[in-house]
Amino acid sequence: MTEGITTVTIPILLLGCGGVGRELLHHIVASRHLHSKRGLVLRVVGVCDSRSLLLVDDVPTIGFDDAFLTEICRIKSSSSSLSALLDFGHCQLFKDSEATTKILDVAGFLGRTTGLSVVDCTASTETVGILKETCDLGCCIVLANKKPLTCGIDDYDKLISNFRRIRFESTVGAGLPVIVSVTRVLASGDPIYRIIGSLSGTLGYVMGEVDDGKSFSKVVLAAKSLGYTEPDPRDDLSGMDVARKALILARLLGWRINMDDIQVESLYSNKHGPNSMSTEDFLRTGLPSLDRDVQERVSAASSRGKVLRYVCVIEGSRCQVGLQELTKDSPLGRLRGSDNVVEIYSRCYKDSPLVIQGAGAGNDTTAAGKNLNINAGLFMDLSSAAKHEHHAGSRIELTDAGANSCILW
Fold first, then answer.
1. Active-site residue among 158, 245, 271, 306?
2. Residue 245 is a catalytic residue
3. How high is the pLDDT of residue 404?
4. What's the confidence (pLDDT) of residue 34?
5. Which one Pfam family would you cite for this protein (predicted)?
C-alpha cells in the first residue's frame, strides 16, 4: 500500500459467471498492485451463477483469495458447478430460494456496515427484483447487464429510485465514459437535445469494411471469426442491442419511453430470422442473399458523397436505431474498425459536439478483448462505488427484506 493513502475496502458480490463475469474476476486478480497504489481493495465475498451462490465463510472480514478466484474462473469456463469448489474449504454453497434469501441477508448486513457492491454481469431480465432490494438495503449496484435498465418503465422507476447507488457505465460504450459524460453535462444545467452514436463495435466494423467495397456477408463472417459477433450474428444484426443502449441514454435524458417506442431497423428480414432458419442455414444461404441490398444502399449513399453507418439517434421526440447516411468528414463518417463513437449536442456543445470515441468490440481479436473493454467501465464504476461507500454518512436499514424471487444467474 502506498504510504499516506487511505485504504478503502469494498466487498463485492458477483451475479453471473459467464464470459464477462469471469473476465472481471481475472481483472481483479491481475490489478491488485495497481489498486493498492490507489488505496482500493476489492474483496469478493460471493459469486452466483444460474443455480447457486458460493459465499465465503466469514463475510464481514474476508474474501476469496486470488487462487480461489482463479479456480472459480477455471471451473465455470468448463461449465462445471460451483459446488465443485466446496472441496477447497472456507466457503458455503446455497441453492435456489435459499441462495436468494442469503444474498439479501448479506446485503442487509454489509449494506449498513462496510458497504457492498452487487455486480450484475448476467444477461438476464430476472435480476431487477433482487437488485432493487439490495439497493434498498444500502448496497451499490454495478451493472454490465443492460436488461435491468431496459425493462418496463414502472420497474425501471423502482430500480433507479436510489439513483446515486447505481453505476452502469459499462452498459453503453463498453469502457468509454459515455454515461458519466452525459450525466455531467446534464448536472451542469446544460440541456442535451441530440445524441447520435455508433454503439455497436460489431456493426461499426461491418459497415466500415462494406464501405471499402467488401461484400456484406464476407465481412460479417470475418467479424465472427475475430470474435466480434455473437455465436449467431443475427443477435448483432437485429439492432436490438443498440436499441437497448439507446433506451438507456434516452431514459438518462428523462424520456419516459419503453423499447416498443424505439424505431429499430434490422439488417435482415423475418424470412431470415431465427424462427425461419437455423444459424447454420443463415450463415450458408441467408447472409449472402443480403449482399445485393446492402451494396445498393452503400452505393446510393456514396453517389451523394456520404457513407452508411449503423447508428442510434435521440432527438426531439425520436429515438431511432438503424442505417443512416452521414457526411464522410464527420466523426461517425470517419469511423473505421470496431470503435464506438458518440456525439453529444447541447446548448454549450451546439456547433461542435462533445465526441467520445474508443474501442468498442475489443482492442484485440478475441471475445476476451471485448470483455476487457467492458470491464474498464466496471472498474470505473467500482472505484466510484468505493468512494460512495467511504463517504456515506448513513445507511438504510430494513428489518424484513423478503425474497420475491428464487431465480439465480
1. 245
2. yes
3. 32
4. 86
5. Homoserine_dh
